[in-house]
Each structure stands twice: as structure tokens, then as C-alpha cells.
């Protein structure tokens, strides 16, 4: 009976759900109080070290964690070690670093090990296949990725891809600071399983309150994943902008939070560019008398921010 209970406990332990552990303060890797998850990072846990935070590795950590995202500093003492799984990656972002240690200090993957002393600066990555500069290679070509604010203060994300390979799904994550506290905003399936390229869009219906950062988490069928670049919608965009009227005969008036040089692009319902206008005033008028009747989408970009809305040409 005791043997059966022991096996059951082992199974429960083995298949416990992996956690997300973010360093909440400077401290040792091996101290539970360092981590938001309340325990030392365990098997499959995804670990984040945010900007301005230093975590020091002092022990021989043989449990294979998930991804390790570093915007702060991971510092090794002599002979200390962190282990990661075959599908894991260490992502060192701009401003992040791995420091310290002697040749006995190691970052260990099943098929690749990097030894100290460490002096690794971001942006760079380390995974089971080796080490590289810049962001880890994506299992697709991300042609474009942008965020814009709608007139109702909701955010629209749009991205286009090429050469999709072995993609399982794409998660959209958001954060208030761009380096930690990432939350799942939504999930989308790939439009194709192999090859080709497509355009995606996602609407975050949570109204903007301050800056908001977004990234894509691209997950393949083997459970491996990488992150896209980060895009931001700034708090200055929460100020009101508008077009009037939205049922248009000949012209419409655009009002922006501030004056400045920028461009308006008008697209028809099929995504085809119908008209472009440059502007340098806070309020200006656009002649749309030559457009055919139908629904149109307006994108306004002033070099810092972008706005998206729509109107109907009568």
C-alpha cells in the first residue's frame, strides 16, 4: 500500500503544472523569497529576470527549467549551474546580461553547454543548438508587427508572416512595462501548417490605461517557443482623436491630440490602399469625394503613434 501511495505521489510531482517565476527583487536563485511563484524555479518553469534586478546563482541546479528571459542580470558564482530542457531557450534582451563564474559555472542544455566565466550581453540567445546574437530565430519570417489605437481606445495588433513552418499556435502577450509581468491577452491558430504567408489581426478589448507593450509567443508543434520583438502603444495615444462625420459624402475632418507631421492612409474593405494624405496640423480636412461608396479604414501615423478607425462613404 505504501508503495502505491509513493508511486502516486511521484506521478503527481512529475506531472505538476509548470509555473511562471519572475524575480521580484535582487536575491539568490536558490531562495524561494526571490521569486513571485513562491518557490525555487522547478521542472519546466518559465523564469523571468526583469530590468534592474540581479539574481545570483550559488548552487548546482540540475532540475531542467523552461525558458529563461533576462532583461536584468543573471550572475554566477564559481561552480554554480542552471539546467534547461531541450526545448528551452535563454533570451537575453537589450540591457540584460549574464555575468560572473569560473569555468566550473555552467548553463546546461541536453545537447549544448556554455561555461563561465560569463560576459554575455543582450540582445542574444542560447538554446539546445548553440548560442547567437540578436533574437532567437523564429519558426517563421515575421514580415511586420504593429499595434495601433482605435477611436474607442481599444488596441488592434496586426502582423504578417512568411515561411511558416511547424507552427502550433501563437499567443499574444501584454505587459505594463515591456520587461516583466507579461499576461496572456489571447491566442490564435496559424492560417497554414506549412509554407506560405498570411496577415493576422487581434483586438485587445481592454481599454488602454497608460502604456501597454505587446509581443507574440510563437509555439511550434514540439512545444518549443520564441518571442517576437516588442511593440508599444503609448499613454499619449489615450488622448482623444476623431474623424467626423463617419458617414461621409465629400469630406471629413480629422482631429488629433497634438499637431505634428504625419500621414493618413485610407484602405478599402479589401485592404487595398485608396488614398494617402500628409498632414502637419492638429485638425485638418480630407477630400474623399472621388472614393466609391463603401466601408473604408483609416490609419494615421505621426512618427511616434498610430491610430486606426473607419468611416462609410455614402
Describe the structure.
It comes from Pinibacter soli. InterPro entries: Ig-like_fold, Secre_tail. This is T9SS type A sorting domain-containing protein. Keywords: Signal. This protein is mainly beta and 314 residues long. The chain has 1 helix and 31 strands. The longest helix has 13 residues. It is elongated and about 75 Å long. The N terminus is likely disordered.
Count of distinct strands = 31
- Termini separation comes to 79 Å
Summarize the main sheet. Answer: 8 strands, mixed
The secondary structure category is: mainly beta
Mean pLDDT: 82
Q: Helical percent range? A: under 10%
What ranges have pLDDT less than 50 throughout 5 or more consecutive residues?
Answer: 1-16
Number of helices: 1
Shape: elongated
- Share of β-strand residues: over 45%
> What's the Cα radius of gyration?
24 Å
Protein name: T9SS type A sorting domain-containing protein
Pfam family, one: Por_Secre_tail
Organism: Pinibacter soli
InterPro entries: Ig-like_fold, Secre_tail
Topology (elements, then pairings):
Blueprint: H1 2-14, E1 20-22, E2 27-28, E3 46-49, E4 54-57, E5 60-65, E6 68-70, E7 73-76, E8 81-84, E9 89-92, E10 97-100, E11 106-108, E12 113-115, E13 118-121, E14 124-127, E15 130-133, E16 141-150, E17 155-162, E18 167-175, E19 183-188, E20 199-204, E21 212-220, E22 225-227, E23 231-233, E24 242-244, E25 247-248, E26 251-255, E27 262-268, E28 273-279, E29 283-287, E30 294-301, E31 306-313
Parallel strand pairs: 1-3, 2-4, 3-6, 4-7, 5-8, 6-9, 7-10, 8-11, 16-31, 25-31
Antiparallel strand pairs: 9-14, 10-13, 11-12, 14-15, 16-17, 17-20, 18-19, 18-21, 21-22, 21-23, 24-26, 26-29, 27-28, 27-30, 30-31
Amino acid at each position: 500500500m505504501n508503495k502505491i501511495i509513493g508511486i502516486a505521489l511521484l506521478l503527481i510531482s512529475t506531472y505538476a503544472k509548470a509555473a511562471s517565476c519572475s524575480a521580484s527583487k535582487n536575491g539568490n536563485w536558490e531562495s524561494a523569497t526571490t521569486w513571485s511563484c513562491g518557490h525555487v524555479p522547478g521542472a519546466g518553469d518559465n523564469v523571468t529576470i526583469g530590468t534592474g534586478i540581479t539574481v545570483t546563482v550559488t548552487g548546482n541546479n540540475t532540475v531542467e527549467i523552461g525558458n529563461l528571459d533576462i532583461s536584468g542580470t543573471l550572475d554566477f558564482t564559481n561552480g554554480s549551474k542552471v539546467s534547461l530542457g531541450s526545448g528551452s531557450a535563454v533570451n537575453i534582451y537589450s540591457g540584460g546580461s549574464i555575468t560572473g563564474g569560473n569555468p566550473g559555472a555552467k548553463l546546461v542544455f541536453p545537447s549544448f553547454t556554455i561555461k563561465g566565466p560569463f560576459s554575455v550581453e543582450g540582445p542574444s540567445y542560447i538554446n539546445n543548438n548553440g548560442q547567437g546574437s540578436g533574437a532567437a530565430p523564429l519558426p517563421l519570417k515575421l514580415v511586420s508587427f504593429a499595434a495601433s489605437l482605435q477611436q474607442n481606445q481599444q488596441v488592434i495588433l496586426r502582423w504578417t508572416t512568411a515561411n511558416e513552418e511547424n507552427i502550433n499556435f501563437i499567443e499574444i502577450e501584454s505587459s505594463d512595462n515591456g520587461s516583466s509581468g507579461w499576461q496572456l491577452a489571447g491566442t490564435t491558430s496559424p492560417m497554414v501548417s506549412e509554407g506560405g504567408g498570411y496577415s493576422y489581426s487581434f483586438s485587445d478589448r481592454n481599454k488602454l490605461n497608460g502604456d501597454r507593450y505587446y509581443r507574440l509567443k510563437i509555439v511550434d508543434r514540439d512545444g518549443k517557443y520564441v518571442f517576437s520583438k516588442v511593440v508599444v502603444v503609448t499613454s499619449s495615444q489615450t488622448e482623444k482623436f476623431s474623424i467626423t462625420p463617419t458617414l461621409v459624402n465629400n469630406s471629413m475632418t480629422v482631429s488629433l491630440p497634438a499637431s505634428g507631421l504625419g500621414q493618413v492612409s485610407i484602405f478599402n474593405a479589401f485592404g487595398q490602399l485608396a488614398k494617402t494624405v500628409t498632414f502637419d496640423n492638429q485638425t485638418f480636412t480630407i477630400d474623399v469625394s472621388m472614393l466609391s461608396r463603401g466601408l473604408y479604414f483609416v490609419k494615421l501615423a505621426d512618427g511616434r503613434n498610430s491610430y486606426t478607425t473607419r468611416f462609410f462613404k455614402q
